[in-house]
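Case 309 in the screening queue. Each case pairs one protein sequence with one candidate compound; here the compound is flavin-adenine dinucleotide. For every case the pipeline is the same: read the inputs, emit a complex structure as tokens, and attach any notable structural observations.

Predict complex for case 309.
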Amino acid sequence: MTCMHIRDIMKRDARTVSFEFFPPSSASAAESLQTRLGQFAALAPSFVSVTYGAGGSTRTRTHDLVIGLHEQGDLDPVPHLTCIGHTTGEIDEILARYAQHGIGNLLALRGDRSEAVDIGGDLSHAVDLVRHVVAFNNSGEHPDSRGFGIGVAGFPEGHPETPNQLLHMDHLKAKVEAGADWITTQLFTDNSHFYDWRERCELAEIDIPIVAGIMPITSLATMARMADLAGGTTFPARLQRRLIRFQDDAASIEQVGIQWAVEQCNDLLDHGVAGIHFYTLNRSDATTRIFQALGAGSSADLRPAHPDT
Ligand SMILES: Cc1cc2nc3c(=O)[nH]c(=O)nc-3n(C[C@H](O)[C@H](O)[C@H](O)COP(=O)(O)OP(=O)(O)OC[C@H]3O[C@@H](n4cnc5c(N)ncnc54)[C@H](O)[C@@H]3O)c2cc1C
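Case 309 output:
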């Protein structure tokens, strides 16, 4: 498989379906992901994305997984890249290596600030990284004359650092005007937040595809982790009531979480979503069960029958 520019992928797949992986931190975790890649590939996603540890903590591991997937050829990898803690020289090195390998797209992020991450670096916000990648694209170093396709993050329930939602929308719009090709959202469990935010994006004249981020709750610990990672995410009472009913029964909790994600996906499909991005946590079983419950043998079954439906 040669990596394609996201605009070509979106033209080919009237609705994208994508999976997110994180780079494994041990040999056994790497082996376990490797054994699951076949199951992920069987679902024929439009692309898969690979996270990056802010400040470069997974720099080599992200690179190795991305290039490994690219060379295996069954899954089209989109690396995440965060800018905090990096000099522009370091970013250029990473971009040049991906370009040399023919990687077609990347997700441009600021990265989460934490005590472990040096928040210095030459670029403060994701918009600066988008501008930097566009400048790289214009240098002609990428084998595709359009350069990298660029994705950015969107936050249907807002971002903890910018409680002013109007201002936060301005910041998203700035990333789009700087050259982003698509938006992938933070995970959410209540679709009404996504629909309202999508309308607000439309009102702000943000007209690039918006891909919805879905993460099934597979345990109460996963939900706690989601709440921590995606600050501000709502877990509706209706969902919590179902989970509490089974709190001592791990298999039932997982079933409830998967069922909830299936309901979310069906509703998103009914509402003409441009794409669904599954936060897989490198586990193929939950994703496979969601596909089965949706009646989909592969991602192709989740695309609209006609491009305009
Ligand atoms: C799909 C997705 C994938 C992710 N993958 C990763 C990953 O691989 N690695 C990782 O470390 N993190 C990842 N994250 C988390 C992300 O890095 C954090 O949520 C981060 O806090 C925000 O990133 P951003 O790219 O939206 O930053 P930005 O767009 O820079 O926004 C960050 C904050 O700054 C504000 N802001 C933006 N521009 C300005 C400005 N000019 N002046 C003042 N304030 C401004 C925004 O309103 C927002 O509150 C991911 C998030 C999502 C949704």
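Case 309 observations:
- The chain has a mean pLDDT of 95.
- The chain is about 45% helix and 15% strand.
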